Model the fold of this input.
Amino acid sequence: MRAWKFGDNIDTDAIIPGRFLTIYDPKELASHAFEGTRDEFAKSVRPGDVIVAGRNFGCGSSREHAPHALSGAGVRFVIARSFARIFYRNAINVGLLPLVCGDSDKIRDGKGISVDLDHGFIESEGARYPIEPVPEFLQEIVNAGGLVDYAKDLTEVETCTGSRR
Amino acid sequence: MKGNLCGGMRPGIHPPCKSRIIWNDHEYMNFMGRTIVEKIFSSRCGRGVEAGEVVMAPIDAAMIHDITGPLAIQKFREMNGGRVFDPKGVILLFDHQIPADSIPAAENHVYMRQFAKEQNIHNYDLREGVCHQVVMEKGLATPGKIVVGADSHTCMYGAGGAFATGIGSTDMGFALKFGALYFRVPQTILARVNGSFQRRVGAKDLILSIVHDIGADGATYQAVEFAGPTIRDMDMAGRMTCCNMAIEMGGKTGIVAPDETTWAYFRERSDVAPVPLQSDPDAHYSEIRDYDVTGLAPQVAVPHNVDQGVDVGVVAGTHVDQVFIGSCTNGRFEDMAEAAEVLGKNRFSDDVRVLIIPASREEYLKVLRAGLIERFVEAGALVEAPCCGPCMGGAIGLIAPGEVSLSTSNRNFKGRQGSAEGKVYLCSPATAAASAIYGEITDPREVQP
Done:
């Protein structure tokens, strides 16, 4: 489980460039992840590896191909100081867990890393760093394994108006 | 939770607690001490809603296009979607890869055409232009509506007073099934703009300077409300340019309070009647920022982030290989007229590929009828049919390693317009036209007719 360290403002064009957006298969998307900006990622990433980044990870386009490209590579967790809003929702919806960690800058590229969700911390090079819990309203979606599994058996939802749709 | 008209309020601020009241879409005045965004959610929920609350809100319209649409449809099906919530509430079109530039793109179009037919959704197909412009000009995102789009620049519709935000394909699958979606009602940053622009300086320069000021993530999870005399005097095209780029600060939406300009725009496009919808004087903003455009110079965002804006003078003289005038940000008639005014009787440099792409069929016709297409073609430009153009980064107009693109679009990320070893600079239509004449980044204020 190695950490792949990235900087601030990693945009979704970097995660998966526009020319690959006709692809929808996560594994095939994974083979183009970070193509042109960090080519060794797709070549060397192993299932269970963790992305660690700075501020505003996943900014830019709403393309859901981005979290799919990462989950297709076997990545389960993205740890960042902060996330762009659409990427954050997309990741949770497709079962890739975005974790906010104020100390993400202390993690070093290529080092071993583990995530302890039950106790709310990540561990690397013998040090532990706390992670923030996922907002309550999204927790149910996380628990279901993503929005598809959460929604597929629902026939209606209760809206804020009290009406059912 | 539902229907508690007087509960959950901020201390000291209370809405009128009437014993019997029928809420409808237009009773915004009944919610006091609130921002426009809070009023829209309050109105749609039928109770007072405040920033920070998470609500499952009904949505009025949902937009899908040829890139994110196929995946949204797939997710809709995986969710046992059956029928969409309202065929009339779904806007379906193609704009990113049109006409189909590859067999997979053509297959995506076929897949979406079949879905439209099966669900009885009107299919604009590839005829109308760039999604955001089409939603606006068809009057599908009128003031007070909640609109979602499977594209990050959906935030543009706030220019017409809607709450509109970009979502991913899975959220879109959910929205298509239920006609509702979870939202955390955002706080609002108020950008108050004063002053008059210098000649050949305008909305794009303003928004680039605001993005530079607030930063690439400075508005994350928040709405950005544009207000003040400069915005009041701004046409719809300029307001769309500003709201379009709210996402470049991480914003959930950009929004402008509807006024006479807004209602005039929608008068011929929908049957919506004017209603008072504006933030209250005592509304709570997360931040208020004041801007004065009086001395604002043309702005250029340098590679590779949108918040890297500088005065044009800082990068003047930079060689450019391609100039793109178009996109949902700056592909309207007003933008083309601005470019044509700077062009005057000049010619574009033979060392530059100039791509001009109106944002929609309607805008294309306006530009055509005004004689501007002829002028651009005479000057050496390539004029393409309405589409996203080079900003899609995978269809037409890509740049090679080492090349420089100067673009009126909204993103200059590495690889956005082709090679990750190329560079994209962002600017206004005036700066783009001036630079296309000389083959290098040029201050439009210095161009002679």
User: Anything to note?
Assistant: The first strand of chain B starts at residue 54 and ends at 58. The longest helix of chain B spans residues 103-119. Residues 73 and 272 of chain B are 30 Å apart (CA to CA).
